[in-house]
Amino acid sequence: MNKLLLEHNGSLLLEGKFIVSPYGAGKISTYGKLTPLEKDIIHNNSKRKIKVNYKDIKNLTIINGMGVTLGDSIVGINALYTIKKLNNDINIRVIRPELCPSYVNDIYLLSKNIIDTLSYMPFDIEEIPHTQDSIIIDIGNQLYWKDFSKKEMHDFFLYNLGVNPKEIEDCEKSNYWLKDVELPEVSLGDYVLFCPDASTKIRSIPSRFHQKIVEELSKKHQKKIMGFTDIEHDNYINIKALSKKTENFISIVKNSKYLYTCDSSALHIGAGFEIPTTCIFTTVRPTYRSFYYKNCESYYIGTFETDGIHNSENANLIKLIESKFEEFYV
């Protein structure tokens, strides 16, 4: 698959008929003819700016929403929650990219009070209804959109769905939709949750600092420290076995007394339940991810060399970040 299609700002069309995602197509070695999805009835804000009065819309179809990671999806669904509050009668359909991990897709199943219909790619373009009071928006592959690393994430989704972020109150940008989700009960007592592992190594807290952090959290909070990785410390418990499903993970974050993380999914969940949080950023500045989270204390330890990098296995960059962690924890 060529680089232009892989990094295309939007979705793709397979054999002129089926909508697919660059994310999914990039994982399949033998695919048919692929072209950028470009139809007059489909809006794509990266190509043609849109502004939508959702009070006049009956049906909203979002192609390739709202991301392939759990954290992005939580924030993206919050934008749909905002639209639903603008027009409670609107019918929202989300067409998901193919081959996403089940733990990511599960968050969409949990948002059934917001998303009315879930579909999955490959999706026949002829099956998208188009009427005068409906709108179709392609927001796919946002990782490669120029403003994804230049706008606060809630504002990014709102803006690219045709909503002026300045017209939405800041308090609406904290993922409070999660409070309406039915979750399993968690009975773990009082605990601090430690999440040092992000989806990529360059965003994770190196393991050699874990014991030190657990020790400091133990002294500061006088509570048990829990997490999802093995750490040798008398006051730490690995509860990974209790978080095999997305709803269990959310419930564990929800019931914590304090959260220390570099994992964006835990960050965004914690904000939804107003959990006091410390979040460490290495490649994305807090301004773009935690700006509206009033209970979050954020630290950026990256440099201009790591700024804006979403995924990298570059040994020199990872070594650089480790040196910054060394300075931070001295």
Automatic annotation (TrEMBL):
Protein name: ADP-heptose--LPS heptosyltransferase
Gene3D superfamilies in the cross-refs: Glycogen Phosphorylase B
Record-linked SUPFAM superfamilies: UDP-Glycosyltransferase/glycogen phosphorylase
